[in-house]
Amino acid sequence: MSINNRKQHWxxxxxxxxxxxxxxxxxxxxxxxxxxxxxxxxxxxxxIDIGGGDSLxxxxxxxxxxxxxxxxDISEKAIQRARERLGPLANQVNWIVxxxxxxxxxxxxxxxxxxxxxxxxxxxxxxKKYLSILxxxxxxxxxxILGTFSDKGPTxxxxxxxxxxSEDDITKLLSPSFEKIKCIHPDHITPGGGVQNYTFCxxxxx
Length: 206
Known about the structure:
Layout: H1 3-16, H2 30-38, E1 47-50, H3 57-63, E2 69-73, H4 76-86, E3 93-97, E4 109-115, H5 124-137, E5 138-149, E6 156-157, E7 160-161, H6 167-174, E8 178-184, E9 187-189, E10 195-205
Parallel strand pairs: 1-2, 1-4, 2-3, 4-5
Antiparallel strand pairs: 5-10, 6-7, 8-10, 9-10
């Protein structure tokens, strides 16, 4: 899928579906918050959320006292919705509208978080671009928190095919630059009652 088609798809999703009706909705993103908490990182650590859209992770991190947050999403509408929900607190977040494969980083981050953006990349060239940008962005010894649909999870999401990853798959893919710290396989229950199994891992940059 071309970048323009990807953007059009996601703009349409966020223009037509309320937050509580999208399949990835979580009132409290427990797994992501737990992984970040386990880092015992400083509250001013730089954290970037890839494909964060109007996820509530940012709300919870702000509530927990984190002060150096960036959210990147391909959809301008998604970010607009998040900013409107947060009100004045939105000014404490750096918002970036970009396809991740076209992102030009201007800084490095302590934590790179991605829940379910990476698995939408299906072409080798896009996966390689993502990994190249990740390596540019993440500081030495920085933390990568990555959630994808597992090999027992769905094969599609929001009308698009995804790439499933087992723990071995994602570890092997990242092994040249990253050390696996921990992987779990939580089930996400969608607003419609569906069950989606994830491979959710934390890595440390070597």
